[in-house]
Amino acid sequence: MREHDFDAGDVVSIRFGGVLRHYGVVTARGTIISNSRLHDGVVEQTYEAFAAGRDVRLHGRYSSLDSYHVELRARRHLGKDYDLFGSNCGHFVRHAHRRKPTAMQVAAATVRTFGDMLAGPKRRY
Fold first, then answer.
1. Which of 8, 26, 56, 102 is the most exposed place for a label (fewest CB within 10 A)?
2. What is the residue-level pLDDT of the chain in tens, covering all 125 positions?
3. Domain boundaries, the chain
4. Phi/psi of residue 36, nearest 5 degrees
5. What is the residue-wise DSSP string for 41-89?
6. Fold observed for domain 3-119
7. CB 92 within 8 A of CB 99
8. Phi, psi of 110 (to 5 degrees)
9. Which residues, in sequence order, are CB contacts of 92 under 8 Å at separation 6+?
């Protein structure tokens, strides 16, 4: 699919690691905002940079929220850090569409919180 086939607010993805997918939100500019481990957080990229030579799959809209507000919610997270269990690309697109976390996302966050409580504060050197 080409970038002109997408509308602002659409959720798109590319395949990586065989069976996994990386998700992002299309903007009115035709760029894609995503939360990427590769880029250490939320970034805005051109269609070509996001695709990285792979086919881009359209997932459509995740909500009835208008495209302006989806993009605004996505842009507010630009520069925020990536976290596999608490803030990954799946969490990001659901948040942009004002969708609640899935049960798996809540469970992972709960386990992590208890682990942090038991392990005590983390030291930074």
1. 102
2. 455 589 999 999 999 888 888 999 999 999 999 999 889 899 999 999 999 999 999 988 878 888 999 999 999 999 999 887 777 888 889 889 876 555 454 444 445 555 555 666 554 44
3. 3-119
4. -120, 125
5. EEEEE-HHHHHTTSPPEEEE-SSS--HHHHHHHHHTTTTPPPBTTTB-H
6. endopeptidase fold (from Nostoc punctiforme) (3.90.1720)
7. no
8. -65, -45
9. 23, 25, 34, 35, 42, 74, 77
